[in-house]
Amino acid sequence: MADTVTRPDPDALLARIEADTEREQRGNLLDMARLQEGHVQLRREWQPLEEVVGASMQTLAVPLARHEVVVNLPADLPLLEFDSVLMERVFCNLLENAAKYTPAGSRIEIAARNEGDRITITVADNGPGLPPGREESLFEKFTRGQDESSVAGVGLGLAIVRAIVQAHKGTVRGENRPEGGARFIITLPAGEPPVVVPEI
């Protein structure tokens, strides 16, 4: 006897997507209000960058499945002092934007390098790029990028990214890559990680 394949109800699926989008938008608005009012207490701990990047990718496993994701984090990258929950939000927002605004099959790259007193992290893609001349204004509240009518959101993702990065005494900017696509560059202070003494 053949197995019966149950197909998802399109209306139910659409309702779920809309509910998830609405919940995300409410969360963005609440986060932005808290960040602006200084009500967010950073819970900073020394930790590896790869863990928060990995957690972000796991959270976005479904939208990222349509893309080629390449992670290039040096093995000797030092520990960074940051709030893991907030920094995960930074990478989730950047990766989600990359997945939203680039066609299926596009390449998304996450890389980092040690520059002495700071760590530079990039999230790049080979999609259509940022609107020329609007690279800076995209970080303003309620500002969105390409294909605004076809992509859900209220334009708070990058504003939240900047607010969180600045709360960590860092900087973030967006630019178009010479070879095509967009690139977001985050710099965070390297600080002085604690010395870990191996147990004998």
TrEMBL record:
One Pfam family named in its UniProt record: HATPase_c
UniProt keyword ATP-binding, yes or no: yes
CDD domains: HATPase (cd00075)
Gene Ontology terms for molecular function: ATP binding
Domain spans labelled Histidine kinase: 28-192
E.C. number(s) listed in UniProt: 2.7.13.3
Reaction catalyzed: ATP + protein L-histidine = ADP + protein N-phospho-L-histidine
Keywords: ATP-binding, Nucleotide-binding
The protein's name in its UniProt record: histidine kinase
